[in-house]
Amino acid sequence: MNNMLLKKDLSTEQLAIVQSELDKKKKSKTVMYLAWWFTGGIGGHRYYLGDTKKAMAMTFTLGGLGFWALLDVFKIGKRLEEKTEILEAEIINKVKSLDGSEISEIKESITSNNKPNKNKLPAAFVVIAALIIFGVILGVSSNKTAPVSSTVASVSSNAAETVNEKVDIISEKVDKEITKENYEKIKAGMTKQEVIDILGEPDMVSESELAGLGKSEMFHYQKGFTMKAIDVFISNGKVSSKNWTDL
Questions:
Q1: CA-CA distance, 84 to 133, in Å (whole number)?
Q2: CATH, residue 240
Q3: Domain range for 187
């Protein structure tokens, strides 16, 4: 996916709107790595990134008994970049459909919202504080539950087997749908149901709304635990654009 091509026809005002919306909505790299540090063993960083299936698998397997969580630290940086790029592409497609008066109105709103607020505590600090508190509570709880650790390990092992079985089923289902051939079947103007009929239910759905633009959605499909993915952008119930990664 190359957003530079999408941005080349945007005006200065449109680029400012894209950057403002991206700054407000994109995930923080600092928060992501702190989430990995304090809650990596249960997939906290993957929950933060919106990779719910991987996060649940990590929770049930305790981060693959630590090995998966350790290896994940080398992957989540690139995953964050991909998520940011997907979000930026979604914002660009919405901004392109704005008329002049809407752009001026949003630009004025951005200017007023950019005034510094000394009393506002940055959201990142709130998240960091919550992660630190969670880590302390988790440490205290682990000390109290030491006598039943063997039981927990047995339950975790059974849960891991169940999750792996479900993941295998999901992967088989996705393998049949996330293909270049099916990607080519997606056409502009299709309804959401037509997209679902071709690709199945999306792995992740993000929604947003801009003044005067209506509702926009992004259907994200990913092939198992690989980088192969399809993103379908939907404006007011109709397909407006699409992207693929590593098909």
A1: 28
A2: 3.30.1450.10
A3: 177-247
